Amino acid sequence: MLHHSIFWLVALIFVCGQALLIHAAWRLRRAPAPPPPGVPQSPANTDFAWTLATAALTALLFYGVYLALP
Amino acid sequence: MFNSNIARIAPVGALFTLLVVVSGGLVSASGSGAACSGWPLCSEAFTATATPQIWLAGSHRVLVLLAMLFAAVAATLALLRPALGRTTRVLLMLAPIFGLLQLGIDGLMARLGFAIAADLSHLALALLMLGCQTLAALRLILPVANERLGGRALRETRRLTTLAWWTAGAVAVLTLALSSRAALVPSVSAATLLPANGSGALAMASLFATGTLWQTWRTRRNDRLLLAGASLIVLLLVSLAPLYLLPNAAGAMVGLAASLWVATLALAVVIQRRPLPAHPNAIVAPVAAERTPSLLIDYLSLTKPKVISLLLVTTASAMYITEAGMPSLWLVFWTMVGGYLAAGGAGAINCAFDSDIDINMGRTSRRPVPSGRISRRSALRFGLALSALSVVVLLAFTTPLAALCSTLGIGYYAWLYTRWLKRSTWQNIIVGGGAGAIPPLVGWTAVTGTLSVAPLLLFAIVFYWTPPHFWALALVKQKDYTRAGVPMLPVVAGEAETRWQMLVYSILMVALSLLLTPIGAMGWLYFAAAVGFGVIFLSYAWAVWRRGDHASIWGLYKYSLLYLALLFVAMVVDRLT
């Protein structure tokens, strides 16, 4: 019971945290600040895709953890 | 008036405490303690036939009484004189407290039946009391050197002071270790619990003392007093060696070692307080920065040994927490060798590819490739050779999966991160963090040959640890990254955005670190440690987000290094217990 509680608490934190990061990546994609001279412009769509991929892979890990719970 | 009184009383008090330790060593070695039946008085001194044992035990008790009296008087004077200086006052007030603790703990341990442990605590507390009195007396006698040191002089003085303090610490361990030889039954003495026995502690102390002498010769050779003091300490330590061979001298050696401890403490304080000689060439060592490192050092630095040390901690720890049990030492050794070669190879390739960036950054501009001491081609060949060797070592001595993970790590870091991500996207550190997260997988698979959820969680912990760690550095070195044209998050999105994302990643990392317990890979000991270390990490991340000043950012950067090491050590401790 305690193990499951910890898992769901961490999962909740994960969902909230990833939502904030995805929102930040979306915000930076919509309104990218001009980089200083000599610094390349970061590709907005790729940046957003990286953020989604990271979140998706970590979610997959959470699924693995869920299956491994006693 | 007050100051001069304390300045007279404190050294006398220290002298009496030293005599207490010396006589205590003799009492212990001769078994004279049993000659007195009571405490604190020794009635046998008046009633029984006078024997050397009774006189020795009685004298020891009289000396204890006098030492406590002087310590109490000095502490009272310190209490009445706030202008004395906080450290000096605290030292003087601590001395009688250690003395009283010594008496109290002795009584408690005797009552609880832990008499064996009391022999160590007895001497340790006496040494602490002696140390406090010695330091306080020296601070009262020697005025503070009123001078501002330049960068190099300050650095050299700090180095010398550090060595002197380490010498003092080693001599304290030596004194405690020698006390086991003075005990009537050395094998059951609590001193056997120390990390070094008498000869080991003597070797360690001699090593530090020689280092102090060498550094004194390099930087303060015009100061005859310091040089003589450092030389004397080395000579005394060397002279202890032949005495060590004489079993009958065990009691006297404790006293000698305690005297040596006073001398080493005195040297450390004198180094701090004596002004540098007025001679302009007082620091006679050649300027280190002007020296060209040897080719060997240059090639070694290409492997980034400082970075690798933390990676190897995570690799080794992962090896000890698998469900397969304790790995053999040979397996650990070869995995470490393979891991070093792989990480070093990837680091050398990174140095070759990044020389155009490194030359524009203060932190990296002195690396061998940007400074022209090693060509890019040579660095690349070296990196490739190390990488190939790592695959061979890991394949030959560990498992194919460990070799595969390691090879993927090399490619990830040297090509995906270095050649592409680092130069093109602010996600460079986030995605690139995967390269640094592979070592635990290598360690785990080297033992088990398979992957499971637990090692993937280790990967995720390091992966989410990377952004707050490297963004802290990027915030501090923001101008360097801008000049080098690297699109780090602080450069392209600003400090506020970076600080906020650092906090979010820190929360995710700490949360992920807790999942090892619910799946049964770790116990509650680890869970408690992960919560404790994580809370500290979050407090640093919070400070960075709220304040964002240099001190808080630098604090997070330094703690993050410690955090990762502590977390993995906690895993090993949990598994071993």
Automatic annotation (TrEMBL), chain A:
Q: Tell me which GO cellular component terms the UniProt record holds.
A: membrane
Supply the name of the protein: Uncharacterized protein
Stored InterPro entries: Cyt_c_oxidase_su2_TM_sf
Tell where it localizes. Membrane
Where do the TM regions start and end?
48-69
Keywords noted in UniProt: Membrane, Transmembrane, Transmembrane helix
UniProtKB/TrEMBL annotation, chain B:
Cross-referenced InterPro entries: Protohaem_IX_farnesylTrfase, UbiA_prenyltransferase, UbiA_prenylTrfase_CS, UbiA_sf
Report any Pfam family annotated for this entry: UbiA
The record's principal subcellular location, in a coarse class, is membrane
Stated membrane topology is: Multi-pass membrane protein
Which family does the UniProt entry place this protein in? Belongs to the UbiA prenyltransferase family. Protoheme IX farnesyltransferase subfamily.
Q: Name one GO biological process term.
A: heme O biosynthetic process
* Name recorded for this polypeptide: Protoheme IX farnesyltransferase
Bilayer-crossing regions: 62-80, 92-117, 123-142, 163-184, 190-213, 225-246, 252-271, 331-353, 401-420, 441-465, 500-517, 524-545, 551-573
Please tell me which top-level EC class this enzyme sits in.
transferase
Under the cellular component aspect of Gene Ontology, which terms does the record hold?
plasma membrane
Species name: Candidatus Viridilinea halotolerans
UniProt pathway annotation: Porphyrin-containing compound metabolism; heme O biosynthesis; heme O from protoheme: step 1/1
**Locations listed in the record:** Cell membrane
- What keywords appear on the UniProt entry? Cell membrane, Heme biosynthesis, Membrane, Transferase, Transmembrane, Transmembrane helix
GO: which molecular function terms?
A: protoheme IX farnesyltransferase activity
Role of this protein = Converts heme B (protoheme IX) to heme O by substitution of the vinyl group on carbon 2 of heme B porphyrin ring with a hydroxyethyl farnesyl side group.
Q: What is the top-level taxon of the source organism?
A: Bacteria
Enzyme Commission (EC) number: 2.5.1.141
Annotated PANTHER family: 4-HYDROXYBENZOATE SOLANESYLTRANSFERASE, PROTOHEME IX FARNESYLTRANSFERASE, MITOCHONDRIAL
Q: What else is known?
A: Carbon 2 of the heme B porphyrin ring is defined according to the Fischer nomenclature.
Q: Which reaction does it catalyse?
A: heme b + (2E,6E)-farnesyl diphosphate + H2O = Fe(II)-heme o + diphosphate
